[in-house]
C-alpha cells in the first residue's frame, strides 16, 4: 500500500531463471510512505548521486533509517518513508528464494545470512554495480549471464559485512565453516555420481566416523540427507528451466532413475517433480507480472 508516490516513466526490466530486475522512475510528494510485503527476497538500490530520500524500518515503533540499499527477506513487512517532494530512480532485484540460497552456498557462504534484513546507508561499491546494471537494462543489453553476474555481485557486496563477522570456530564437536564450505562444494560439484561419506570425510580432513558425527552435530542432519536435499534443490532449478525431461533431470543430479528422484522429491517437497514443474512455470509467470506492481516500490 502506497501513498503520495507514483511512477513517472514506463517500467523497464530484465529477467532470468530465478531473478527479475526492474528499474523504476518515481515521483514522491510530501508525506510519501508505504507498507510492503513480498513473497520472495529482494534487494532495492536507490540510484543517482543525490542523497537517498528513502527511509525504512521493519518493526512498528522503530525509528526509520535512511538507506541507499536494502535487502529484504521474503515475507518480512517493511514500512517506507520518502523525503519528498522528489523524483528518483531505483533498481529492484526480485530473487526466487531457493535460487538465491543456492547461489549463496556456491559462493561458500551460509544461507542463514539471508534470514535478516540488511540496511546500507551508503556503499559506493554497491551503487557502482547497480548503476552499471541499470544502464544495461536501459539499453536492453542485460543478457542472462551479465544480469546474473552483476546482480550476484550486489548480493555479495551487501552481505559481505555480515559474512565477515561469522566465526570459523567450530561448534564443540562439530565442523568449522571452512570444512562445511569444502564439503558443500564437493556435494554440489559431484552430486551427479555416487558420493560416499568417506570421500566427504577426506575432504574435511577427518575420519569417516568422526566426520559423520561432527556433520550431524553441526547441521542437525546426516551427510546423506544433506546430499539428497542438494540433489532435490538442483532438480527443482532444472525443472524450472523446462528444457529437460524428468528422467534426464534424475540422472543429471545423481539419482538412479525417475522413480528414485520422485520418491526423494516427494519426501522433501511433498510434491512430485511433475507437479512441481507445473506450479513453478505458473509462479514464474506471476513473478514477472508481480514485478510490475507498485507494491514492490521502495
Kindly describe this structure.
The chain contains ten helices and ten strands. A hairpin with a 7-residue loop joins β5 and β6 (65-66). The chain starts with a strand and ends in an 8-residue tail after the last helix. It has 298 residues and is of the alpha+beta class.
Overall shape:
globular
**Number of helical stretches of at least 4 residues:** 10
In round numbers, the mean pLDDT is 84
Low-confidence stretches: 164-169, 291-298
Q: Measured on Cα atoms, how large is the radius of gyration?
A: 21 Å
Structural class: alpha+beta
Task: Bin the strand percentage.
Answer: 15-25%
Question: What's the topology here?
Answer:
Blueprint: E1 2-7, E2 12-16, E3 19-36, E4 42-46, E5 54-57, E6 65-66, E7 69-72, E8 78-82, E9 86-95, H1 97-106, E10 118-120, H2 124-139, H3 144-164, H4 177-190, H5 197-204, H6 208-219, H7 223-241, H8 246-252, H9 258-269, H10 273-290
Antiparallel strand pairs: 1-3, 2-3, 3-8, 3-9, 4-7, 4-9, 5-6, 5-8, 7-10
Summarize the structure.
This protein has 298 residues and is of the alpha+beta class. Helix content is 46%, strand content 21%. The protein is built from 10 helices and 10 strands.
Amino acid at each position: 500500500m502506497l501513498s503520495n508516490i507514483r511512477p513517472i516513466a514506463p517500467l523497464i526490466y530484465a529477467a532470468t531463471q530465478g531473478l527479475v530486475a526492474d528499474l523504476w522512475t518515481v515521483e514522491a510528494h510530501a508525506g510519501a510512505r508505504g507498507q510492503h510485503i513480498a513473497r520472495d527476497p529482494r534487494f532495492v538500490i536507490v540510484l543517482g548521486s543525490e542523497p537517498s530520500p528513502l527511509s525504512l524500518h521493519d518493526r512498528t515503533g522503530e525509528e526509520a533509517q535512511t538507506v541507499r540499499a536494502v535487502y529484504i527477506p521474503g515475507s518480512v513487512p517493511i514500512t517506507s518513508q520518502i523525503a519528498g517532494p522528489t523524483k528518483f530512480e531505483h533498481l529492484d532485484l526480485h530473487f526466487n528464494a531457493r535460487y538465491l540460497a543456492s547461489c549463496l552456498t556456491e559462493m561458500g557462504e551460509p544461507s542463514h545470512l539471508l534470514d535478516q534484513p540488511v540496511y546500507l546507508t551508503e556503499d559506493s561499491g554497491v551503487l557502482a554495480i547497480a548503476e552499471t546494471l541499470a544502464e544495461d537494462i536501459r539499453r536492453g543489453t542485460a543478457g542472462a549471464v551479465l544480469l546474473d553476474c552483476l546482480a550476484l555481485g550486489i548480493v555479495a557486496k551487501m552481505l559481505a559485512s555480515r559474512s565477515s563477522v561469522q566465526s570459523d570456530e567450530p561448534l564443540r564437536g562439530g565442523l568449522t565453516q571452512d570444512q562445511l564450505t569444502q564439503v558443500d562444494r564437493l556435494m554440489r560439484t559431484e552430486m551427479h555420481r555416487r558420493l560416499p561419506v568417506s570421500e566427504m570425510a577426506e575432504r574435511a580432513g577427518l575420519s569417516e566416523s568422526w566426520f559423520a558425527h561432527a556433520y550431524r552435530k553441526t547441521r542437525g542432519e546426516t551427510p546423506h540427507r544433506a546430499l539428497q536435499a542438494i540433489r532435490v534443490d538442483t532438480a527443482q532449478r532444472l525443472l524450472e528451466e523446462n528444457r529437460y525431461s524428468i528422467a534426464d533431470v534424475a540422472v543429471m543430479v545423481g539419482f538412479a532413475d525417475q522413480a528414485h528422484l520422485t520418491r526423494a522429491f516427494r519426501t522433501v517437497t511433498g510434491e512430485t517433480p511433475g507437479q512441481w514443474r507445473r506450479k513453478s512455470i505458473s509462479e514464474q509467470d506471476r513473478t514477472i507480472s508481480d514485478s510490475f506492481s507498485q507494491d514492490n516500490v521502495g
